Every structure is written in C-alpha cells, then in structure tokens.
Amino acid sequence: MSSTIKFGFSLIVILILNSCVISNPKPEECEIIEITVLKIYEGGIKDIVLEAGSGSIYYINRGLEESFTEAGMEDKVLNKKVILHLAKTITGTTAHRAQLALENEIIFY
Fold this sequence. Notes:
The protein is α+β, with helices and mostly antiparallel strands.
C-alpha cells in the first residue's frame, strides 16, 4: 500500500473512533427519555448502573468516583421516575447518560 492510502485509511479510522467519544454532550446532542429506576448497582469500573422496568440499563460513567454512592442513589431515585439525557454518537444513542434529573432537580450532568 502506498503511504498516501495508509495515511487516508488511518485518518478515517481516527475520525470514526473520535466520533464515538462522549465528552460533555449538550442537550441538543441527546435523546431524552423517562424511566422508572427499579434497580441500582455497581458495574464496570466504578460505574453506577440504573436498571429500568423494561430491563434496559443505563449508567453513570465512573459515578462512584464522583460524589455518589449506591445507597445514596437508592435513597434518591429507586422506584422513582427520572429523566435521562442519553448521549448520541455516530453509531446511535448510547446507554451513557449525559444528565439525570428527578422532577425539577438535576442530580447528575
């Protein structure tokens, strides 16, 4: 392969991978849904996982490194309806939440 083709291919791969990175999405870059949180647990690396009644899961990336605990989240949102702003990428909507709100209170963004 010529170096021009290698460079072009590398650039395309980098652009595709970069478009999947989620970094502080704005509200217009999100899908907004309402769920009832039926279960909360730790998943991944210090992630807080929220399980909805439909069986769908959503997570707060590294939420346990922030000011949250599982017990604190259970007290706040367990068995309650919350509004999630889910980040969109080139491949579609993710389970990575950009914002979590309960009624008029923004809990996490």
